[in-house]
Amino acid sequence: MGRLDSPWGVFLKGNIGLGRFDKGHMNDEDWGLPPNLSYVNTISGQANGRYTYYTADVGYDFLRAANYNVGGFIGWTYYEQSSDSRGCVQIAAPPPCLAPDDDQVVGSQNTQWNAARVGLSAETMLTERWRLNADVAYLPWTDFKGRDHHLLRPTTMFDEQRSNGGRGVQVEGVLSYFVTRNFSVGVGGRYWAMWTNSRSDSLCSSSGCVEPTMLAKYSMERWGTFFQASYKLD
């Protein structure tokens, strides 16, 4: 996370990140599918996972002292994630889709979230070199776009999902150590959640889709720890 302060209390801040993952699982549940209109549930592993994100904010410190600042901000956030689904084990409604040891790629998913942010930011110097930062943001509006590829079919297909007008929340805290006056390293924790409203559109856009439009709801949650390095401009 980087932050640029002015003598008048106005500040600019933001962060950017990327990562990979090769673990996890994906459940694919369906109801009312032909020919018997039964409930179907399969589980697959995840591989080749990638994600990127950024936040960018402008704010004003309405409380300022020698060792702490408290301010409000508005800004924007973006999060994208993609991964492959490998293997397929039937949990409900046989027959099995693949053998348990078959780990071929059966699908892929890509999701993109954009959202406006409004919130509070605070920082305090615990000692001469240790600093604690915390951000709490409410997302009053979200825009979601996703694509879900189905490869384990005689004719491959994909579904597109789109929605806007949802909500979300982002909470983050960082404990940093100043190596020099301007350069610091830190460790932090983060919780992000975004969701669409109940009238989201799920658009089937390729061969095999029967219903052109279905109502659906989508959500994402992400939490964990991270390491960061930042440079503060005077």
UniProtKB/TrEMBL annotation:
<keyword id="KW-0645">Protease</keyword>
<protein>
    <submittedName>
        <fullName>Outer membrane protease</fullName>
    </submittedName>
</protein>
<dbReference type="GO" id="GO:0006508">
    <property type="term" value="P:proteolysis"/>
</dbReference>
<dbReference type="InterPro" id="IPR000036">
    <property type="entry name" value="Peptidase_A26_omptin"/>
</dbReference>
<keyword id="KW-0378">Hydrolase</keyword>
<dbReference type="GO" id="GO:0008233">
    <property type="term" value="F:peptidase activity"/>
</dbReference>
<dbReference type="InterPro" id="IPR020080">
    <property type="entry name" value="OM_adhesin/peptidase_omptin"/>
</dbReference>
<dbReference type="InterPro" id="IPR053724">
    <property type="entry name" value="OMP_A26_sf"/>
</dbReference>
<dbReference type="Pfam" id="PF01278">
    <property type="entry name" value="Omptin"/>
</dbReference>
